[in-house]
Design brief:
With 304 residues, the chain is of the alpha/beta class. It contains 12 helices and 8 strands. The radius of gyration is 18 Å and the shape is globular. Keywords: Lyase.
Length: 304
């Protein structure tokens, strides 16, 4: 399956039972809600997916289960966030073996690689696999920026096809378009900059709050891409207080609490994370409840 790097691609949460095992019942409920809302792909094992706490066997189960649920309607993509090139190459091999159709790749973890090392890392992994790749450019959280000069070198690898743009610099979308044209698809990776990025030429949105509000997220993206800007802005303004729950160190707990409120998830996280408590929990619940009270009626965003 080729990947159209566009539209909304949820970075889904991983569901856990009270016994800290994979909760595939609630996981399936959420994935089906995403598909029904019209998302363009499913991304597993990102930050929201609590990837650093997952075993290799759990990643295998999640990929295989998602492939089964989506029934080839949309691609299944898994994040690669490894410490060594060797481990990243092996992760890519296993992803293909388990049935994933694409990869999202972070630079090396822990060690702060320089530009040359980072480019070589990406190239070696890309050259080891036929799977299409989206580079995850998030220097704010992960400490390494994939610059335009680095992307120019990575353009040699045909299967490096997209960039998840999370620098928080909205003008970077224009810089990429000016330099590379359509060589790379661009997907915004910051919920609070998504509409702005799409209006500046981004192809899509790797979203977080979509985990709890799939229809609203896809509606914003579809309306904006169809030129119905006022309609998109109206929904986006309603959504912004909720979207700000994504730009937090507790984004996983925040978004899982929102999933509970919309009936497509649970609060269970894997330790050392703990569910929200006390005043922090009350503050987040107040934002979620206010959003639910004023939840907009959506237009027919699937048929624009």
């Amino acid at each position: 399956m080729g990947i159209q790097w566009s539209g909304v691609m949820p970075a889904v949460t991983t569901k856990f039972t009270n016994e800290d095992t994979l909760d595939l019942v609630n996981f399936e409920k959420n994935i089906k809600a995403q598909v029904e809302a019209g998302v363009s792909g499913i991304i597993l094992g990102g930050t929201l997916g609590e990837a650093s706490t997952l075993t290799q066997n759990e990643k295998k189960i999640l990929i295989e289960k998602t492939v089964e649920i989506v029934q080839k309607k949309i691609p299944v993509i898994i994040n690669i966030a490894e410490q060594s090139t060797k481990d990243a190459i092996e992760a890519a091999r296993l992803a293909k073996e388990y049935g994933a159709q694409g990869l999202m790749m972070l630079p090396p973890m822990r060690y702060k690689a320089d530009s040359r090392e980072t480019v070589v890392y990406f190239k070696k992994v890309a050259n080891s696999t036929p799977l299409p790749i989206m580079i995850y450019n998030n220097p704010v959280d992960y400490g390494i920026e994939v610059t335009l000069d680095m992307l120019a070198e990575l353009a040699e690898c045909e299967n490096i096809q997209a960039v998840k743009e999370s620098t928080r610099d909205i003008s970077n979308v224009t810089r990429m378009r000016n330099r590379f044209g359509d060589r790379f698809a661009i997907l915004c990776g910051v919920d609070t900059l998504a509409l702005e990025s799409i209006l500046m030429g981004a192809d899509g949105w790797v979203a977080g709050l979509v985990c709890a509000f799939p229809a609203e997220t896809v509606a914003i993206c579809n309306l904006a891409k169809a030129g119905k800007i006022k309609e998109a802005i109206t929904i986006y303004r309603w959504f912004l207080p909720l979207l700000e729950l994504d730009i937090s160190t507790k984004l996983v707990q925040n978004i899982k609490l929102a999933e509970v409120a919309t009936g497509i998830g649970t609060e269970n996280v894997r330790e050392p994370r703990l569910p929200l408590a006390g005043e922090e929990r009350n503050r987040v619940l107040a934002i979620i409840n206010e959003g639910l009270k004023s939840r907009p009626i959506l237009p027919d965003y699937k048929n624009l």
